[in-house]
């Protein structure tokens, strides 16, 4: 085989041809999914399952945002709009009309679709920073509307639903949602869906076009790419998946209110997950979640404060100690801020991008 | 047969006329040189032709169809492609992926696009760098990459904007050979260039722009011996 | 009729303060092309600074501006030098994220120090009113407007008549050309950010007698500041001034004629409309 044939074959694999199907990557993925599927059989602690569910939620949000932000390069900092659309629609339909959440989630996707179409039509002619601002404005309009339309949404008091209908198929009850296990599997399922969608996009014409738009919009336009169509496709895909995450969150937690599901905090968190992990990569959001969720929980549960006390550096009864104990639990937003600053300044391509650079340096400069 | 007709095209920005009543035709299969001092309106004309913005007045006719107001992606699909004065590589994508983006203009199959892309990379002799990141390439290879990418869209008319800018002697020579090979493939070209020697060698006809207006048009010999052209280029000629 | 003219005038008065915030933001954008998402949080710090000066030293909030301006200027300059400077050539998205991160750090640090309890700064004249053109308006608001007008006039003089001011304008118009002409663009960026920060801090000081003071107040003002600068055209001081007053009036009218809960929705909806139809701003320019 001469050089050009070898290069052609290698580049076909890179181009995502069928040759790559049984790669190491796929095998690892299958093993991991299998392990995760069997996990609840071995671990029954509700707290552990809860952490896993949080990890799943975070990953789903991150993967969904990645499609529009990481691949197409349009940084929406208003994704709470879709998360909240899913959450509120599901809860309202459940509470007011006793519609089961699996149908409510589909309705939620419908609402998210409408919002995405509106955002797309207004915002996509805007370049970079203007798009960011517009996306925030839309999310804020939704949040404020949810606050003000008290007759519909119960305003700031939010909606509380603790009883979920049992899931029955052909007369057989699959689950009555009394433990965390069914939520675990729903979460896992959604993770698989979003990772799969990301994979399919990356290895398709859509993926190439999204990335071209991200890299240089004008060049992409001149190469035959319909900018507005593709940006909208990316946003719609992203919005639909984020809304599913919102619906899932709503039924898991059982309570939604405007700041929790429509607030700027959520939007920023979602972006953070991808930035920390590495934008525009398939597993970036997974890495980002693995960093953020444990950190967040460790802070919330005083784990970090207690570890600091254990090392003896700071005494629990001292002023500093008391301060730490009191406030570290609420400090996760502060830590998010610090993380963003650190990542942007020192690792703008995220953890994965940073690792990739190290590997590339060793291989001698090839992409 | 004129593949491109420019009829009284003007482009105004506020009060400034970047192009003023420019008219000429480009014969199919030929190479049309477009020269003029800096600020003469050459790139503006390219932008009007390819739909980056519409002309303020006049018509752009390509293969008998009026192109005014068409978006750049439509223009590309109809068979007209352009390179950029300041190269625009898709930096975080590989060389091969860059060219594939061009090839995907004509096919939905990644496999086919990959094959087309490799062919074009062979034409510009960069097949060995297929897996390199475009952002890390030196300027000469970025220019070649852009040409390969644009060739992958299978254009009938190729607009090259200072594709030799910033290149050394041997790199420029490579590009000139490339342009002649492209001509041999039957693709029409319009070339903006400051390198006079190169333009003289490759062009069938030349259009001269100054201050947004067409100064004259003719064969290379006619243009080079024209007093008005010499005056316009005083101090800049490389003849 | 009285209600109308009252809400109109109040809107204009508060609009003056909004204009100050917007001008600060637009200067930063004009000179560095950076969208400063921490702007509202800088204002918040100005509010707390004013509060402390008042509570600890009994300094009247309007008088304390003399102290707030230089301190906030320094704060902004340091922030620029340490953080913002490093991302001047990064992707705009990353620049925004950096400022978002800095904003999060500021607001949450203040929350750790002060908790999220609302603080109120009450002076003797906090609830007094004054008679302007026969209409009764809040006294602190009226004073703020006068001070704002004075500051804006000073700014105008600074940018038009002083060397530094003109150098900043040159940097905003064409950074490379300014550098070639011997202007220290890095220093101009630092000054511009310091200026923006001190304007934001001053706006905070001015509204502290009339608004609740709490750590999260920043984000609402940041968004409003953006609406104002986009309305007026990013980089245009005149635009930010007009935009501020427009938004002040729109808000005031909405609060009176619709409801105070919806007033922000009106502002954001206006924002989206402008983006849709006149993204370069109502004045149609984007320069300083």
Kindly list the characteristics that best describe this protein.
heterotrimer; B: 239 residues; alpha/beta; six-stranded mixed beta sheet; four-stranded antiparallel beta sheet; 10 strands; 26% strand; C: 288 residues; mainly alpha; two-stranded antiparallel sheet; 72% helix; globular
Verbal overview:
- The complex is a heterotrimer of chains A (367), B (239) and C (288).
- Helix content of chain A is 74%, strand content 3%.
- With 367 residues, chain A is mainly α.
- In chain A, α8 (181-202) runs antiparallel to α11.
- Chain A starts with a helix and ends with a helix.
- In chain A, 47% of the residues are buried.
- The model of chain A is unreliable at 1-19 (pLDDT under 50).
- With 239 residues, chain B is α/β, with parallel strands linked by helices.
- The mean pLDDT of chain B is 92.
- In chain B, α3 (95-103) crosses α4 (110-123), α3 (95-103) runs parallel beside α5 and α4 crosses α5 (139-151).
- Chain B has helices at residues 42-50, 72-77, 95-103, 110-123, 139-151, 169-184, 196-202, 220-224, 227-232, and strands at residues 2-13, 16-27, 31-35, 57-62, 65-66, 80-82, 157-161, 188-192, 205-210, 213-218.
- Chain B has 9 helices and 10 strands.
- In chain B, the strands form 2 sheets. Chain B has a 6-stranded mixed β-sheet, sandwiched between helices. In chain B, strands 2-1-4-5 form a 4-stranded antiparallel β-sheet, with helices on one face.
- Chain B is 36% helix and 26% strand.
- The longest helix of chain B is centred in the last third of the chain and has 16 residues, at 169-184.
- Chain C is mainly α.
- Chain C has helices spanning 2-32, 39-57, 65-82, 92-114, 139-161, 163-173, 175-180, 185-207, 217-232, 237-257, 263-277, and strands spanning 129-132, 135-138.
- In chain C, strands 1-2 form a two-stranded antiparallel sheet.
- In chain C, α3 (65-82) packs across α8 (185-207) and α6 (163-173) crosses α8.
- The mean pLDDT of chain C is 88.
- Classes of the chains: A mainly alpha (367), B alpha/beta (239), C mainly alpha (288).
- Chains in contact: A-B, A-C.
- Chains A and B meet through α1, α9 and α10 of A and α2, α3 and α4 of B.
